[in-house]
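for ur thesis appendix - Myosin IB. copy paste whatever u need, i formatted it the way the template wanted (i think)
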Amino acid sequence: MIGVGDMVLLEPLDEDSFINNLKKRFDHNEVYTYIGSVVISINPYSSLPIYTPEKVEEYRNRNFYELSPHIFALSDEAYRSLRDQDKDQCILITGESGAGKTEASKLVMSYVAAVCGKGAEVNQVKEQLLQSNPVLEGKNLTEYGKYMDIEFDFKGDPLGGVISNYLLEKSRVVKQPRGERNFHIFYQILSGASEEFLCKLKLERDFSRYNYLGLDSAKVDGVDDASNFRTVRNAMQIVGFMDHETQSVFEVVAAVLKLGNIEFKPESRANGLDESKIKDKNELKEICELTGIDQSVLERAFSFRTVEAKQEKVSTTLNVAQAQTKVRKKVMGVLDIYGFEIFEDNSFEQFIINYCNEKLQQIFIELTLKEEQEEYIREGIEWTHIEYFNNAIICDLIENNQTGILAMLDEECLRPGTVTDDTFLEKLNQVCATHQHFESRMSKCSRFLNDTSLPHSCFRIQHYAGKVMYQVEGFVDKNNDLLYRDLSQAMWKASHSLIKALFPEGNPAKINLKRPPTAGSQFKASVATLMKNLQTKNPNYIRCIKPNDKKAAQVFNEALVCHQIRYLGLLENVRVRRAGYAFRQPYEPCLERYKMLCKQTWPHWKGPKRFLFQELCLPFCFLVSSAVFLPMSNKTLKPPHTQLFKLEDLRKQRLEDLATLIGKIYRGWKCRTRFLLMKRCQIVIASWYRRFAQQKRYEKIKSSAVTVQSYIRGWKARQQLRELKHLKRCNEAATVIAAYWHGTQVRREYRKFFRANAGRKIYEFTLQRLMQKYFLEMKNKMPSLSPIDKNWPARPYLFLDSTHKELKRIFHLWRCKKYRDQFTDQQKLIYEEKLEASELFKDKKALYPASVGQPFQGAYLEISENPKYKKLKDAVDEKIIIAEVVNKINRANGKAASRIFLLTKNNVLLADQKSGTIKSEVPLGDVTKVSMSSQNDGFFAVHLKEGSEAASKGDFLLSSDHLIEMATKLYRTTLSQTKQKLNIEISDEFLVQFKQDKVCVKFIQGSQKNGNIPTCKRKNNRLLEVAVP
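the 3d part is after this line
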């Protein structure tokens, strides 16, 4: 180990050896050192490979002093004490600004998240707790304090957390100390947001466009604002922000950033009063668009203030300066709060920040120095008092209810009359003049009358960390922390939901005339609540030290470190630890923890508790009247932590033995219970099985009896049947014999009457029997009712040939009628059109067979539903029979142009496909003929009546993929309207009238470059040639 890991063991102990030990360890990247259970952390200002998952596993469930000093050791000790001993814990991280407090809190939370339980719900909670850091770090590390209470269940799994912020420094928005940045989120949005997102927020990427952003600190080495912005957005989503909520937050941030660009100009009113006006209203307009506030309302709120006096309201103008400035759960607390601040210009914010640090130092003194020594004296232990500086006198100077600085500041803010910062300073000079830690130029104490380093408008306080001079300017206004009612009411009128929720006091229905508490009193109350909360938990300390002011790695400024060691009281802490006891605990909890180590005390001990510890701990413990103490130093014993670890190891081994015993007893009970259950189950199963076996045996006997009975009854029935059949045959034989005998007698009697017509009668009888047989056979051999089924039984006799054919014809007509009766009116119309097409084109047009299986749809363009053809639909008021895109052949070059072909009851129309404009409209009476080729192409010509208005431009030569359907519908529609059949000419060569000329259209066979698509080409003025593949 480099140097001494625990300052308690440092020899010799003085300030120089203390600093040298820290420097030696710091030079070897050992940034953590112990003072007993207190961890000293020196900020290395660089990344070190000591926070890997392997390191987490190395320190997991290990004793505090077992490994080299590390923040993970303290985190593990706190977590195991909370989980195993049911003690609420708090980890207090203190130090100056830049000492690494926030990074330490992140390491603590990441370690606890890594070692606690697993599971989907637990992992979600851990992820939300870890991702809360990037969201909160949109603020600067030094502008606010953060206290997080993490709640755990009995297993040690996190359930959730509560985060409290202290003193969000609002004044930093408008003014930052030299070298400091504004809030990080401003730089992150401008660096990491996309151009589209910036446009929505009405922002530009240039930092110089915004007055609130100082250019000297806009860019920081090692800080990637763009990457941090993506991290913040992802963290907001994990924590639970919805998309619209995230958008609302960024809109508010953008509005705040743009507020800095609003400038006011002074003007004088007619009554002589000063007022302010906004110079450029463009920024105001964009702010109103982001927040949803009426521009006139916001402008008036910026420039006017309404004052209420009894029942009257008076509106006064604001000058330029005023317009510009305005189930029990286990808990582990992690406190990461601002460090002690000493700037060139220290104001109200630094005053209350340093007050909070004084309170934290006080609780540290009380718990580690004062309370421990008082306890030794109270218990009668021989003890030499160790001197230390108690800062209670400084805390009393600030927070005393009568004479404290905060009390006098509140009194000055509330009193009537003229109140200024100078009157507040005068009051301080009167009340605090004799206080040894207060200094002022106007103080009555003669010691400071000649102190020219102290300006008139300042006072100085001797804090535990050193002297700090505060400028009194702005103390009163910042303590009032008032927002003019006009501004809050303007914000409440915003349509932006988040803005409205941030200013509930602007609701006119909830106006409260009671003066709100001042900022100082609010902060004092919140600090008191924090201190009370911390005192209910077992404290764990991380004391962060800043090695240099340059934030440079491997630089150790001994003077700076020495100053921090002195005011933190670390040497006094070491001396108390060395002279005191490393372990102390009351008898009751100590008995509960270690009673399993003795047979006499396990499981219950009812005798004197002191006797127990005399037997159990006397070799290495010191007993007093009410507690057990483990010495920090004893020349004859091992180091104290080894002695305590020995107790813990014995307890751990004993717990393992007890767990084994409990497991053995439990397994025995479980086996006995299982055996008794199996025994009862066996009895139940056996009884049910015997019942089942008897039932099966009974059913088998019953089935056998029924079978025998059925065989006997069957034999008797068959015997009776044979007798009945024999009797029946005897009766039938007698009847037949009698019939034959009677027939013979009748034939003998009437034989003479049949001899003349016997041949004709026999022929007719035979023919009748043959016809009867024919029809009966036809009945059984009839084909299916399908009209396309051409099967028909063969003719049995030649003389039935004509009858057989006629019967086939009648049957076919009958089943066709039955098939037609199933059709709807629409199907009948379709088949009529198909039949018409067959009559017109079958065996004439090569394209016809391919169209037989395709249904005639007519409306291939959904003109009524497609908004593109709304203009065309409005122009046609008749029912559209067919709507199809065709190619109109150009008369000049044979090229095709797309047109919409419409057929209505009275007209044929051609319209432009893109615009829907009607190009030509031809009445059906002017259509005289349709010409087409006999080949497999879609070209056809529509011939118009000579002299008609539509024929002025000549006939139409068109091409369509549904030629058969279009020609058939055009033929039927023309026949229906004009009562005349339209001439359909099918020829490979026909004439077409183009204006004044007649052109011959000729179809030829040829191979095409475009595959199976016919092409049209103008050969000369009289010939247009169509090549069909």
